[in-house]
């Protein structure tokens, strides 16, 4: 089975408008999904959706034409459906309902993955949303295998299919699994894909061409969603689809600089600094040479100093040779949030 669609995942606080712009300049993702818009008991006006997903001001696409679906998170089926309709009227090319977010802050209000405990409510939310949305606006549902028991995926799946969703994105871990690499359970997607009832998208631990091929082999699902490693390898779509070589550390730093250039037109300096460090913390997953200058960057207090270091890396003025037995980046686990260890901004 060959690779089908490759989709850029929603990552709250990470994959925002500027980073979607940057990454879609290096990749031909079939579409992106926005960070979630949380809805509680109100129907937001269109200006809120256009503020949170600026691509809606440009026909729901990034500058290079990649579609951006709008993701909505909430607990009330009627409120979810009515907000989804607003998103569609604002120009969203697709809508995604988030029932998989593992954040404890989201769970306090019963949203995200906490909804996996209520399959019937998920089904009702899907039904109402599908009924309200125009027929030409696809509806996807992003879930995990369950809260704690991965066998719950089967009842959750049934409710979503009965609700009339157009596709299901399945992160192949439970909420309690978090992001542990050894907890990935691709095999739970396989019997669902074999039913051939609804398009599925496999998500979780797709890092490179080899893991993508393995995921497709195990799940029988050709569509993939990539998240953390889309930042670690800024050309990941081409690596998976075309067997391109992953970006080197210099090429990755050039991608970070491109991201900075986009941010400078949109965001205050303090935010630029924090996001630069965050992006680099992901790049370390695939390019441990970043550790040779990462901590120095995290100590800088203005963007100009950071820019100078990155320019030195790209120009070759900085030597990027790791010492023997360097263990700073020996394990990828936990490094997706490495910026929290080293960066104050």
Task: Give the arrangement of secondary structure elements.
Layout: E1 6-8, H1 17-26, E2 31-38, H2 46-52, E3 68-73, H3 77-89, E4 95-99, H4 104-107, H5 119-132, E5 139-144, H6 153-163, E6 167-171, H7 190-195, E7 200-203, H8 209-219, E8 223-226, H9 228-232, H10 236-242, H11 249-264, H12 269-283, H13 291-298, H14 303-315, H15 339-342
Parallel strand pairs: 1-2, 1-8, 2-3, 3-4, 4-5, 5-6, 6-7, 7-8
Helix pairs in contact: 1-11, 3-5, 5-6, 8-10, 11-12, 11-14
Order of helices and strands: EHEHEHEHHEHEHEHEHHHHHHH
Shape: globular
Average pLDDT works out at 93
Helix segment tally: 15
Question: Can you describe what's shown?
Answer:
- With 345 residues, the chain is an alpha/beta fold.
- The chain folds into two domains: 6-242, Alpha-Beta Barrel (TIM Barrel); 249-342, no CATH class.
- The protein contains 15 helices and eight strands.
- An eight-stranded parallel beta barrel has the order 1-2-3-4-5-6-7-8, surrounded by five helices.
- Helix 3 runs parallel beside helix 5, helix 5 (119-132) runs parallel beside helix 6 and helix 11 runs antiparallel to helix 12.
- FMN binds at residues 71, 142, 171, 203-205, 227-228.
Give the key terms.
345 residues, TIM Barrel, 8-stranded parallel β-barrel, 15 helices, disordered C terminus
